[in-house]
Amino acid sequence: MRSWRHTLSATAALSLLTLAVSTGPASAGPDTAGTGATNDDTPFTFAVFGDMPYGDAEIADFPHVISRINADPDVTFVTHLGDIKNGSTVCGDAYFQMIKSDFDQFKDPLVYTVGDNEWTDCHRPSNGSYNPLERLAEIRQVFFPRPGWTLGQNSVRVTSQADEGVPEDVRYTRAGVAFAAVDVVGSNNSMEPWTGNTQPTPEQAAEVLARTASVTESIHATFASAHRHHDRAVTLMMQADMFDPTVSDPSYADYYAFQPIVAAVARESAAFDGPVYLFNGDSHLYNSDQPLAAGSSWLSFYHLTTAVPKLHRITVDGSDNAKDYLKVTVRPHNPQVLKWTRIPLDGSGS
Question: What whole-number distance in Å separates Cα of residue 17 and Cα of residue 294?
Fold first, then answer.
């Protein structure tokens, strides 16, 4: 954990975030609920995984992971929750191109949410001492060459925030469930100071400010569409674990940049009639909980006065635990709209 010496800079940055990022659905965007997939009552199944490949062995095995998911006859959509490398290896162009080539082997549409290891943390000497903003630009160029379309061999249209410079933020609706994949990353949503600094640089803070505004706008638009179309559930996907259960005493300096996003998710979830699901990676250990239910310490930590029991959060295994993927089935007429199970990647669970 970072020390409290960053508290003053954190407070100043949070004030800027609070002033600039809307917490209400004033700008919901156009009604594009059907973009990207069908919006009927047909159940469908998608795969979710992330925080891989980490290290040489996982990199070598990654094509087999993709083949394993491709071989699942039920899966028709795939989401990678970010972190396509570990946090101590070089963030090079050749590596990005290699993973993009691997991603291109997915037969089904693939939505990729960007992680911190592939850009935010690239200032580290072990990562190549890059400017993280330059690495983010490279990620966008390599992995989002056709904004408004998924990756994968059977690419489909999605609603993208490319016009705001954030092509990785996408929305789509399928089987009465509104989906949003948003760029929210670990390392305090990219506000952790870069190597050699004790506080975020002005350019660093400006990027976080703009991206966080786009993220909250996408969240509001997703719920607005779900309300209009009487969707049965909302599903949000991101890399960052904003409610890490492995942290017993979270530091404000490590989480303050998530506050506008948590506030938006809490407000929209409380006002929505159906369940809300949040899938994330980052903490590498499978977890299923209600992080904002009554009695949760995260309520007071994020200064929320009302519990949000409708929000159900699921964390995927990753890093050394990256031995399975989540197989998620949408059941439009079941009170528990989403049902999921962990499928071993060695094939022993099917």
Answer: 27
CA distance 343 to 350: 7
Average pLDDT, the chain: 90
- The phi-psi region of residue 87 (left if phi > 0; otherwise alpha if psi is between -120 and 50; otherwise beta) is alpha
11 Cβ contact partners less than 8 Å away, ≥ 6 residues apart: 256
Give the CA count within 13 Å in the CB-facing half-sphere of 246: 10
The residues near 348 (Cβ < 8 Å, ≥ 6 apart) are none
Q: What is the token pair recorded at 104?
A: 């291109």
pLDDT confidence of residue 17:
56
Say if CB 306 and CB 268 are below 8 A apart. Answer: no
Q: 271: closest CA among 231, 223, 238?
A: 223
- Strand ranges across the sheet with 276-280: 159-161, 166-174, 177-181, 233-238, 276-280, 311-315, 287-289
Ordered by where they begin, the domains of the chain are 4-344 (3.60.21.10)
Q: 324-349 burial string, b = 16+ CB within 10 Å, else e?
A: bbbbbbbbbeeeebbebeebebeeee
What is the per-residue pLDDT across 240-283, written as a single tens digit (0 to 9) for each?
Answer: 999 999 898 999 999 999 999 999 999 999 999 999 999 999 99
DSSP 274: S
**Which of the four pLDDT bands, split at 50, 70 and 90, describes residue 22?**
very low
